[in-house]
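WP5 quarterly update. Target: Two-component response regulator. Source organism: Lederbergia lenta. Length: 281 aa.
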Amino acid sequence: MLRKVITEGELGVVIGEAESGVKSLSPILSTHPDVVLIDLLMPELDGIETVAQLRTEGFRGQFIMISQIENKEMVGEAYEKGVEFFIHKPINRVEVYSVLKKTAEQFRLKNSLMEIRESLAHMEPSKMPQKQKSVKEIVLSILNDMGIIGEVGSDDIVSIMEVLMERTERVAQLPPLKDLYEEVARRSASPSNIKKECKAMEQRIRRTIQTAVNNLASLGTIDYANPEFEYYAPRFFDFQEIRNRMKYIKEGSSGPTKVKINSKKFLQVLYHETEDKYLQS
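Structure tokens (predicted):
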């Protein structure tokens, strides 16, 4: 089932499978996959023991654990051993897609950060640049925490934040979204296409926010104390909508569910978060 979801969703290439933790060790250490999806309950060597042994052997890939167990102590132990995310049983196509997409984005981001660190390591401390974080860097960091850095509307959201931050006075309340969309569209679209681009931008942003809801709801379903879930879910969204989505995922439904999207609230909170982090950097 996982192979089918991954293949049909073009989420990656499945390079191997194993019947147990013991039988997985050698193939994983020899092929070095980017991501390992691992069941918690397996014969001979369970998921947590397998992760621990692979880490001891030097494996540096990412782990996603598949489990029906919601014991907080066991979940906490799995995170400590190096598990990045959980997928809840019974397997839900929407959750698998969401978690794997977020994992891929984190993998790419970690590689980029590693390259930056390696470059800086060769510089003398006195010559290392000390500069304020850009608005784009701050916004992308927040979007990455919610798993939407690679979504189709992320660039639009960054552009809106840049427009707002360019204003000389603090924006207490956002102007009408229509005006914001038009201001951003004027920077790239021809006058005849501004109206069309505004509508497209609105839809891209709504789909991106919908993905954030799905991602956070998936995190909260597995671990209610997850730091990203605890911080972002109640601030950026109507928490009842998040709870509704969590219930939907927990019941194992695979189709879409209606979630009310408040784009203005999301952008308003994001603006204040961006402004605070920009002033502190």
